Amino acid sequence: AETALLQAQKVQAMGQLAGGIAHDFNNVLQAVSGGAILIRRRAGDAAAVERLAGMVEDAARRGEAVTRRLLAFSRREELRADALDLGELLGGLREVLAATLGAKIRVEVDAEAGLPPVLADRGQLETVLVNLATNARDAMPDGGTVVFSAAAERAEDAAAAAPDGLGPGGYVRVMVADTGEGMDAATLARATEPFFTTKPLGQGTGLGLAMARGFAEGSGGTLAIASEPGRGTRVSLWLPIVVDGDARRLREAPLEPPVER
Ligand code: ADP
């Protein structure tokens, strides 16, 4: 059974998603209706009609791409709880991350020894890490370094570093740090918004960071981004350390945020 809080979080995420979709669709519809008006005006000019019809077709294709992204987002799996050893997970994913980043980029994996297990969905976390690696690659066309690290943090440190208040208990901070082009303040402010992207059409979905944030918050943790233009970007996820009462829930129920325990 779904908790009221989880339900509320989903509704909030869908609301944000709907806002992004509405915005993108509005742009598409404006291009289509503008194109129709221009075609009527230039009806006698075959070359102009041809060009304008092409513009309308392009806009319709953008509309289809928006729909596809919405479908992909709604098929997202439920989060399942796993007790994860992040040192083992990062070690196991190293080759996939290196392949994602390509030969020009150096990969470092730096997991603290003896990390306590965290409560999170393994498949989702792996997907998030690959998405973050893709972003790092896109930000470093001339190469650079990406460090994937995991370290236990006291709750106070996590709360001080994270923008929103966190529940009691400890967290492991997973960080992906690149030496890429970074983000300006306006991009950083919107980076985790669903469908926000600065990449050319067809290259970015604008969902990578939105899903990373949804994953962190759905796991009872949080996400924060630090970035400096020309220097690089650090994306941090705080994931809750497994506590005694979690054991029986593992693999049985969707995650609940720690405040409900
Ligand atoms: P996408 O990568 O499909 O654009 P994301 O949600 O992952 O969607 O990222 C949104 C935007 O945030 C990107 O278009 C880019 O402008 C910025 N961004 C994300 N990660 C990085 C990074 N590591 N370095 C610089 N900019 C980034």
UniProtKB/TrEMBL annotation:
It comes from the Bacteria. It is found in: Membrane. This is histidine kinase. Keywords: Kinase, Membrane, Phosphoprotein, Transferase, Transmembrane, Transmembrane helix. The chain holds residues 425 to 685 of 830 of the full protein. The keyword Transmembrane helix applies. The keyword Isomerase does not apply. Residues 253-261 have a biased composition (Basic and acidic residues). Residues 20-243 form the Histidine kinase domain. Signal peptide: none annotated.
